[in-house]
Amino acid sequence: MFDQFNRKINYLRISVTDLCNLRCTYCMPAEGIQKFLHSQILSFEEIREVVEVGRDLGITKVRLTGGEPLVRKGIVDLVAMLSTIPGIEDLSMTTNGVLLPRFARSLKKAGLHRVNISLDAIDPVRFQQITRIGNVYDVLAGIEAAMDAGLRPIKINTVIIKGVNEEDARQVAAYCRTNKLEIRYIQQMKLSSGQFSVVEGGEGGNCKICNRLRLTSDGYIKPCLFSDLQYSIHEHGIHGAYALALANKPKHGTFSHQHEFYNIGG
Fold it and tell me: What is the DSSP code (8-state) at residue 103?
């Protein structure tokens, strides 16, 4: 399917939860968040139906995000449900890696192809400062578990905050070179002010070639991360929400006051 600017839309990013087991300073308030009610969150069956309809429209690539997707109870079952949908050629996940030692092999067996793992610092003190409650050795163990399970390629997402963590990023880059991992530098983004740039080592942030739609954990299809436009699958139906998102996908991002990164997945 193509939007009004002739961009081929074949990529659906799915936020499966607004919850996270870290409190990264650039993503989530220190005190945490007001959680969605369980009744607000899409069931696995609803998510599968959205993906199946998307597949019929041209979606071939799906990524699971959060919050932290691995804190969603039964996440391996969801991966198994989505991996068996014919036509979905690339099924991936963005995770902070903390729970990968527990889940990596099961995820691979269920049909997950690859992972992006967030890692903003190697130094344990700096990592805890950034995540507030995290232990970098948990993430490093998660990366090892993903490699052992065959979830490849493994891409490392590193957020760059100018004047704050450039040295941290250099240390992460050195770690990636040593371990033959791909690194993606993401300049700090701010949804409310429309601050974003093209991801170094990736295609995110390049509006000219954007091929994405997003599904929120509470059932809205969003045509753009940096936009307040969103269409409820409950109000419009799945086909209707897709049609509206496609027809109204903006030429470029502006800003969003509807979501934060912890509940839209970046």
Answer: H
Place of tokens 């050629």: 89
Look at residue 106 and give its three-state secondary structure.
helix
Q: Which amino acid, residue 143?
A: I
Torsion 235-240-242-248 (CA) sign: negative
Predicted model pTM? 0.95
**Identity of residue 71:** V
**What CATH number is given to the structural domain containing 16?**
3.20.20.70
Closest by CA position to 63, among listed 45, 51, 71 = 51
Tokens representing 35 are 């959680």
Q: What domain count does the chain have?
A: 1
**Is residue 50 within 8 Å of residue 238, measured between CB atoms?**
yes
Kindly state whether residue 90 falls inside one of the protein's structural domains.
Answer: yes
pLDDT digits (tens, 9 = 90+) for 37-96: 888 999 999 999 999 999 999 999 999 999 999 999 999 999 999 999 999 999 999 999
